[in-house]
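Morning F.,

Quick status update on the modeling queue. The single chain you submitted on Monday has been processed. Sequence for confirmation:
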Amino acid sequence: MENSIVTAFGIIAAVVCAVLVFNAIYPAVVSSSDAMSNMGHRMDERMKSQVRIIHAGAELDGSQTWQDGNGDGDFDVYLWVKNIGSLRIAAVESCDVFFGPEGDFQRIPHRSNADGSGPYWTWEIENDSEWNPTATCKITIHYTTILPSQRYFARIVTPTGVSDDYYFSM
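Structure tokens below.
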């Protein structure tokens, strides 16, 4: 009889310990599973989001002299960026645009964050209503002064972290 009572207490203690261990480990397993799932979703989204800077230019005439060709009072640099991924890129104004002389570039704010001063950038989609796959976004970087003729660097970074670099001379 004594032996069966000790055995019953041992079984009860083992069940209680098993429940405690399960309650301690299960939330950690579920949490790490959610984290892995979210990371996988972000990686999949990033792999499906791709951009390519396909061309760059500026308001220069045939003799490579700066002209305010569109009459906006600024000297503009243009970057044409194609969505070569399989997902629409939302919130274009949330992209990061880096531009400047090679080795001395800076982050250029979007017009909505520029506090009325330059340089700043604006955008328009040229062959669609949104930045869908195969659509091209024209990014215009507005300067109030003329840029010197030299080699320039441009980088576009989408809100998902996908980026492309481009070097060109003007």
